[in-house]
Amino acid sequence: MKSQIAQRSLLVDGNSVGWRAFHSNAGLSYGGVSTTMAYVFIRMLRAALDTEEEIDGCVVVWDYGKSKFRTTLYPEYKANRERTEEREADYAIFHEQQAWLSEVLPLLGITISRCLHWEADDVLAFWTKVRSRQNLHSVVMTGDHDLVQLLRPKVSILNSDGKSRTTVQSLWDEWGITPKQWAIARTLCKDSSDNITGIPGIGLKTAIKIIKAGWPNLDWTSQPGITDRLVKLVTEHHAIITRNEQLMNLSAAALMLAKELHTKESILEFGVGQLDEKQAKFNMVQKGMAELIANWTSFVTPFRKLV
How many CB atoms lie within 10 A of CB 83? Predict the structure, then answer.
C-alpha cells in the first residue's frame, strides 16, 4: 500500500476524458470488440503525466450512478438523454472499457475513485478542497467547463486535450472574473448536456457581463451596458437562478458529500494504484495494445514517478 501523500496530483475527470476518447476517430478494435476508448484514454493520460513533470500522484474519478440530490431537486436533470438503441450500445461499450480501465490503471500506479449516487465532478470538488486545505497542489484534467469553479491558488485545470491550462490568473486575464464569479455566471445560463434550463437569451458572455456589473448587488442595474431587458430577464427568472445554484455549485456539493462521508451515509470507494509492470503489460497486450507499449520503457516512464 502507498504510504506517501502526493504533493502534486493529477485528478482526472474519468467520464469527461473517457467520452472524449470514445468519440475520437481512432476506430480501434481487437477480437471484434471496440478498444478505442481504453486505448485513447491511456494515451491521453500518459501524455498528461509526461507533460506534467512535477506530478507524483494520479487519481481517476468516475461517475457512479445518478446524482441523487440533483434528480430529487430537479427530476428533469439529464432527462434529455434519450435511450435509443444506438446510444444504449455506446453506453455498453463505454462501461465495458471503463471496467477494464479500472482494473488496469491501478497496475500503472493510478488510483481509481468513485462514490455511489455522486458524479465525478462532486468527488473532484471534494478532493481539491481537501488537498488545498493540506497545502497540496492539484491539476484537474477535464473537458467540462463547470469545473473551472474549482480553481484555487493550488488548483489548476488541464484541458482533456492536454494543450491548454486554466489557472486563477488566466481566468482573470481572459474573462476578468474569479472562479466564484464563474460559478455564479454559469447559474444564469442553460446547460443543454445536463438538460438544465437557464435564463432565455442569456449565454455565458452576457452572464459574465451581468456578474461584472455587480449582480446580485442592488446597484448592478445602473452599470454601463446593462439594459432594461437584461434587468427584466434576471428579475423574472429568479427561481431558475436559485435552483441552478443548488444544481451547479460544486463547492456546496463537496460539503454535502463530506457530511455524508462523515456520517457514513456514503462511502468513497478506492482502487489503490500500485505499480505492477509485468501484469499491466500482460493485460494491455491481451487487449490488443502491443503497438502502444512497443517500447515499454518509454511508455511506462511517466507512471514510474507516481507515489
Answer: 8
